[in-house]
Amino acid sequence: xxxxxxxPRHDQHRGLRGRLAGLFSLPASQNHHSDExxxxxMEELGRQRDLKETYKARLESTQGYLRFCLEVAQEHGFxxxxxxxxxxxxxxxxxxxxxxAADDEELADAPPxxxxxxxxxxxxxxxxxxxxAPDEVMNDHARTRSKTCACNACHSYGDLCGACSGRGTxxxxxxxxxxxTTADIHRATWRGLEVAVxxxxxxxxxxxxxxxxxxxxxxDVLSRQRHPHxxxxxxxxxxxxxxxxxxxxxxxxxxxxxxxxxGRERRPRALPSPPPPPLxxxxxxxxxxxxxxxxxxxxxxxxxxRDLKPSNVLLDADLRARVTDFGHARFLPDGKEALxxxxxxxxxxxxxxxxxxxxxxxxxxxxxxxxLNELVTADHPYIETSYGPSKIALKVADGVLRPKxxxxxxxxxxxxxxxxxxxxxxxxxRPSFATITxxxxxxxxxxxxxxxxxxxxxxxx
Length: 461
Description:
Layout: H1 3-6, H2 15-24, H3 31-75, H4 90-102, H5 104-109, H6 116-128, E1 137-138, H7 140-143, H8 162-167, E2 171-179, E3 183-190, E4 193-200, H9 202-207, H10 211-223, E5 233-239, E6 243-249, H11 256-261, H12 279-297, E7 302-304, E8 313-315, E9 321-323, E10 330-332, H13 351-354, H14 362-377, H15 389-397, H16 415-422, H17 433-460
Helix pairs in contact: 2-3, 3-15, 6-10, 12-14, 12-17, 14-16
């Protein structure tokens, strides 16, 4: 029997463990090539174990969440609406089927239904002057025939009509600045200004029944904001699925994550790496974010961001922070709690949100605490562990994991205590952003004072 027959090749094995066994059965001359593959497979095996634990925990938390919803329904007297008794009788169903069949032709020609929230937001945009029509966009393809017009005033393609040539409101899309899971961000020109256009991809609406309401909510929340540290909305087009975009101010800086980490991936800071920005600047960015969140939480109803993280904070040319991306935000009336399950990014997500429990605006305070610690340490959260996001979420939900704190003696009094308070396991024990902004101002003053004293000593020496 040949060696090839005696030792089957590793690609004949099935499954992750089989591939590992196959690698170990390779001839000795090939072993040095397999080390990297073994490491990758072991890492994948660990991820699969983490996912299994995550799905099991999520199933248990979802069951508890559903029980809670049923209890709420029973308490408020609408549990019967969720029972089988609310279904139609066979006779009624048959009658409705006949009626539906008779109207099929008429419905086939009707426009697709519009989400009520989207329709209301679109009306609001028209009333307040921030509505943008789909035909106001000029991309690269449109610029090749820039001397044409298809507006209602012309009713034909030809030279630009007087109304359009004098209007000057076309949005010219330029290069793509970034791509997200649902949208592309373009640099654009509009009414003589450099702007950013967040264009939601059509497939998002086609594959998500709640996509219209999701987009309308982001436009609605942004349209209400007037704050120096919240991204400013300038206009929006709400015509899904092909023409849904937001026009915002264009910021010249990077994201907070890029500014802090210099584009580094989630790994320990290497010694040759450039030093982080000065501590006073990092605390200043934290204060600006806190001021923005204080403004959001002080509104009536309160605005809960629900996805606060460094990549959702942009910096302008002067390095001042702007909180952005309100796609997951929601309005929360006084005295109410949100019931939506996991929303946001695991690493920055509050434990009560991970556990699918009712939560308040204090979930944003927790996320801010993780960001504050990240700014102070200049390291990614949980960099000291080998855990993936799912494993991190499980341990955070169980109350046994938080990011590594900086050395207490190396920082101003109160900074470490403030971080610990913001990510407290009990939401009610977390401070408000009014308290946080006050504390950060004092901490910043301490840093400036210490820096001036150090400079004085250097000059004296």
